[in-house]
Amino acid sequence: MSIEPPRWPVCTSASLRDGDWLKRRIDFEGRPEECLVLRFDGRIHAYINRCVHMPRALDCEQDVIFDRSGRFLRCSMHGIVYAPETGTSLSVMCEGERLCRVRVDEADGLVCFADHRVSIPQGMA
Question: Which of 46, 81, 95, 115 is the most buried (most CB within 10 A)?
């Protein structure tokens, strides 16, 4: 029997349109982390905000996570590019490596974290 993970609200569905993204502070596997939550091609995805090439936030140099085309996630420091649907690196240097996915779901007009590894830092729930 599978136990459902706790659901932690992120935002309303309407507030995250296609191509939009936001950041949330979470505790992930007991460590404080920053999580990117984005909508791409109508679906919600979430990843720990850390490039696989170097442990830097994707938006560490510019306040953007998508490349100019809006089709790929891109680290602003070295330009490592990722598929938004899977978090897989498409750049030769890190090809096949993946951003750390955080499970999210969308129901009843809310986007929520739905991952056993996530908790919300004290005072933010």
Answer: 46
